[in-house]
Amino acid sequence: MVAVSVATLLSSVALATAQEVSGELGSPGATTTIPGNQLPAPEPAFGGDIKNDALESKAWWAPRIVPPKEAPNVLLIITDDSGFGVPSTFGGVIPTPTLDQVANEGLRYTNIHSTALCSPTRAALITGRNHHSAGFGVISEQSTGFPGYNSIIAEDKATIGRILLDNGYATSWFGKDHNTPAFAASSVGPFDQWPRGLGFEYFYGFVGGDANQWQPNLFRNTTQIYPFEGKKDWNLITGMADDAIDYLTRLNQTMPDKPFFVKYAPGATHAPHHPTEEWVKKIHDMHLFDEGYEKLRAQIFENQKRLGVIPEDTQLEAWPKDVLKPWDELTPEAQKLFIKQVEIFAAYAAYSDHEIGRIIQSIEDMGKLDNTLVIYINGDNGTSAEGGPLGTPNEVAFFNGVNEMPVDVQMKWYDVWGTEQTYNHMSAGWSWAFDTPFTWFKQNASKLGGIRQNMAVSWPAKIKDKGGHRDQFTHVIDVVPTILEVAGIPAPEVVDGINQAPIEGTSFAYTFADDAEKTPSRHTTQYFEMMGQWALYHEGWLLSTKVNRAPWEAFGAANPDPLNNQVLELYDLTKDYSQSQDIAAAHPDKVKEMKKLFIEEAKKYQVFPLDASVAARIVAPRPNITAGRTEFVYTHPMVGLPQGDSPALLNSSYTMTADIEIPEGGAEGMILTSGGRFAGYGFYLLKGKPVFLWNLIDLKRVKWEGPDVLSPGQHTIEFDFKYDGLGVGTLAYNNMSGLGRGGTGTLSVDGKVVATEKLERTLPMILQWDESFDIGSDTLTGVNDADYQPPFPLTAKLNKLTLKVDRPQLTEADIKKLDTAQATAVDGSPIKHVQPGPQ
After folding, report:
1. What is the pLDDT of residue 618?
2. Is 425 helix (H, G, I), strand (E, B) or coil?
3. 610-619 b/e with 16+ CB inside 10 Å = b?
């Protein structure tokens, strides 16, 4: 028999000291911590004894890796598109009792920052690096071929999930995954950028920026699932909480001593705002918003001062009448609509907070809350204004240039607002109020309304200053080093043989001390940049660019020189909490010094090249499994191919040819569809007749239909579309005028034209992001509820489906034509061009 000492084990993994070992080494029940500088930890040398036969030999098992003894469980919660003034915890009027509870049992933070946009914030949150360092200068759907913008988390930036997993934690991710590149989101992978590939053992959620909460594009790990089918009133907010509770219960019953790390990221309150009827009624009966958004803003401001969330001398800027129409200038019909919009938003926020509370309660019921670090971040950016000044029943309309749908048109959806019939967003007037005491919104990285969040943190076993207030400057990149510090786990130097880039955040664990309220901030410098708007925080000063684009102004020519073609503003945040007093004119040297420092930070963290374009980047070329292909052939049903990995038909000519066999008795069903109720197309058989239909953002449906029922036997159905525009290409990267042009569609059966229709305009930008490219049936929502209900399986035999796409290639002469053209939205309205430069 050979005894293996702790020293021998440490030597065998080439690491030293600090390990904690329990049980007899070599026995099946032994455990050990690891120094953690190398992941995965090297296998220890075999410590048993091998002879010629088993009876004379000694078995030996490598110890199971566990975290340090006092390492806490971690529940990391981040909500979506929720500004500083949304939750009741920080002065808002929307009840958030769960966030209140976490704050009352722990600490409330009023100076934590985001990046101003969702997936960039989330990349920073899980890597501890700045969003450009992590490849997420923008969302994946806008990614470009530069290191800071390619939407790929590089292998030298292991996530907190991976680090904790290799140190013995059970790691999971629930909800929104907006960190898988749009061009790697299909069922064929690769999966290295999915949650499972990023170190999260279990994933239950949706991939992309948003999801229909009634019928989401939902995944368990990498398999699409449909738990909502056949269930009335199923909603992802509850469904996700149920799954998280089930996961934690199974873990507790199977390995009660195994610590967990849960990233919990509900879709709330990103559009579409989809609360249940119960919560809509609760909020409606409270009459929180009847007096309009200016009164709401004033009420939140007073609440914040009363609660000590903001200093008494904080200034509230005047209502921006040049940006958003004052409440008393709205028509009674507009006021009625806007109140409905915001009540649905508020119900969604309250509903989500309630379901988060169920998860925390389940942890308490297991007896584990005392040693659970709960980090509850309100919002990944400021409140979204992407509904525009009037709101919208269909967010997809915004992304296609319809950002001010008339109130009388929107009223058609008034009674179903927030149900599965809408993909709804609210008026930006409410968004401005929900960012109180700051100004501007999500996307605006130079204004605190876009980047200032709040947060509550509890850890009953360690944090004793119950209800304490912390105002130290922090950023979401600080979360990873904080978790590692309190868990006693170092940031790894090497992961999978890859040397790791340094963590760029600063742990805020020092603020957990009882007397830390006045402790100086340790995070002293931080840059911000999003789509050409930028800022720099340094030791209480904030240099920022003047806002020159509202979030709903996504189309048109962008600022050609976003570094220099700017009006620079300067603020002393130690005296001006709300960033309301621009003192740049009085401190020109400070402005110059701060700009120089911003450039240094930008070079350090992959921020260059700056790019102020917005919508143009959505149609910019990027990797795609269809890249370089113009012909696609399918012979079997297939569903679930996401928009980012499917053949793109917008701004192109195309031909679809289906060779099918009709059985005796006729056939119907979907041949090919992409998109759904809120934008998309369908090629199908309806009561035996061939149909092609375009759903133009739920405002108009154009149908080509054959007059005759197809007889039994072989048939060839073809839809051919000739696009009138010049399309888009790399030369027109920053010019949107060639998009959304019209064209002529022709439906033929067995070589004979049966229907011809001209579209005056087409969709310029996107179909419905959360719907897929489906062959042989239709998942989630259909493109025309009047014709069919999903899944609408094809009952004919599909022999072959061929799709040919003719994408126009632009020449220099085409560019000159585009420069004099006027872009139009799908509803025919002119798309507003944003003039570059200071405004």
Report:
1. 87
2. strand
3. bbbbbbbbbb
DSSP notation for 658-685 = EEEEEPTT---EEEEEEEETTEEEEEEE
Which pLDDT value is given to residue 626?
Answer: 85
Averaged pLDDT in 10-residue chunks for the chain of 839 residues: 34 49 94 96 95 97 96 98 98 98 98 98 98 98 96 98 98 98 92 98 97 97 96 96 98 97 98 98 98 98 98 97 97 98 98 98 98 98 97 94 93 98 98 98 98 98 97 98 98 98 98 97 98 98 97 87 97 98 98 98 98 88 86 96 92 97 98 97 98 97 98 98 72 56 97 97 92 97 98 98 87 49 51 35
Q: Where are the beta strands (DSSP E) in 697-738?
A: 700-705, 713-723
Tell me the helices (H) and strands (E) count for the chain, helix number first. Answer: 16, 33
Residue 388 is assigned to a structural domain of this protein: yes
- Return the residue matching tokens 């102004």: 553
As a whole number of angstroms, the distance between CA 261 and CA 168 comes to: 10
Please, which residues bridge with residue 775 across strands?
638, 672
**Beta strand extents in 586-668 (DSSP E only):** 631-634, 638-641, 653-662
Number of domains in the chain: 4
Spell out the residues 6+ positions from residue 241 whose beta carbon is closer than 8 angstroms to its own.
355, 356, 358, 359
| Residue partners of 642: CB distance under 8 A and separation at least 6 | 182, 185, 186, 207, 208, 217, 772, 773
Residue with tokens 């500083």: 84
Q: Which is it for the CA torsion 358, 363, 366, 367, positive or negative?
A: negative
Last residue of a domain, one of 66, 85, 108: 66
Peptide bond into 216 cis (omega under 30): no
Q: Copy the structure tokens of residue 837.
A: 């430069």
The one-letter code for the residue type at 126 is I
- Do 754 and 778 lie in one domain? The reply is yes
Final residue before a domain boundary, out of 548, 583, 618 = 618
How many residues would you count in the chain?
839
Residue matched to tokens 């939750």: 87
Max Cα-Cα span within the chain: 93
Residue 313: partners with Cβ closer than 8 Å, 6 or more residues away: 577
pLDDT on residue 834 = 34
Q: What are phi and psi of 250, to 5 degrees?
A: -60, -40
Token readout for 15 is: 């690491």
Strand-pair category, 752-759 with 743-749: antiparallel
Residues 6+ apart with CB under 8 A from 104: 466, 467
Whether residue 565 is found in the same domain as residue 640: no
β-pairing, 689-696 vs 468-470, is unpaired
| Separation between Cα atoms, residue 423 and residue 399, nearest integer Å | 12
Decide if 827 is inside a domain. Answer: no
The single residue listed with the structure tokens 């080093």 is 481
**Paired sense of beta strands 541-545 and 533-538, if any:** antiparallel
Structural domain boundaries enclosing 218: 73-514+522-529
CB atoms within 10 A of CB 106: 26
> Do 821 and 739 touch, CB atoms closer than 8 A?
no
Residue 623 placed within a domain: no
The reply to whether omega before 437 is within 30° of 0 (cis) is yes
Q: Do residues 531 and 612 make contact, with C-beta atoms less than 8 angstroms apart? A: yes
With beta carbons less than 8 A apart as the criterion, state whether 268 and 80 touch: yes
Distances in Å between the Cα of 1 and the Cα atoms of 32, 44, 801 are 22, 18, 69
